[in-house]
C-alpha cells in the first residue's frame, strides 16, 4: 500500500504533529514502509500458534495477595503536611 503526501499530511494533523511541507514526502515513504511491513506480517500463517508474553517460557512470580500496612509508617508520613500519632491529620469538614 502506498501513502501519498496528502494522506501523510492528514495523519500528521490527526496526530497533532507539526510536519513541514518539505518533510512530508519522507513521512509518506516511512508510512508506506510501515504498512508494507504489516502486510508481510499478515502473510505469516499463525494458525495453532499460542500467544506468548516472552520469547523464553517463564512463569510469572506470584505472591499471595495480603493486605498489609507495609511496615513503613514513618516514610509514608514523611511528606504529609500534618501527621499526628501515626496518621494523616486533616482539617475538620463536618460540624
From TrEMBL:
Q: Name one GO biological process term.
A: glutaminyl-tRNAGln biosynthesis via transamidation
Q: What name is this protein filed under? A: Aspartyl/glutamyl-tRNA(Asn/Gln) amidotransferase subunit C
> What is the E.C. number?
6.3.5.-
What exactly does this protein do? Allows the formation of correctly charged Asn-tRNA(Asn) or Gln-tRNA(Gln) through the transamidation of misacylated Asp-tRNA(Asn) or Glu-tRNA(Gln) in organisms which lack either or both of asparaginyl-tRNA or glutaminyl-tRNA synthetases. The reaction takes place in the presence of glutamine and ATP through an activated phospho-Asp-tRNA(Asn) or phospho-Glu-tRNA(Gln).
Q: Which family does it belong to?
A: Belongs to the GatC family.
Which top-rank group of organisms is this from?
A: Bacteria
- UniProt keyword annotations, A-Z: ATP-binding, Ligase, Nucleotide-binding, Protein biosynthesis, Transferase
Keyword DNA damage (UniProt): no
Which SUPFAM superfamilies does the protein's record reference? Glu-tRNAGln amidotransferase C subunit (SSF141000)
Q: Which HAMAP family match?
A: GatC
Show the NCBIfam families listed in the entry: gatC
Encoding gene, per UniProt annotation: gatC
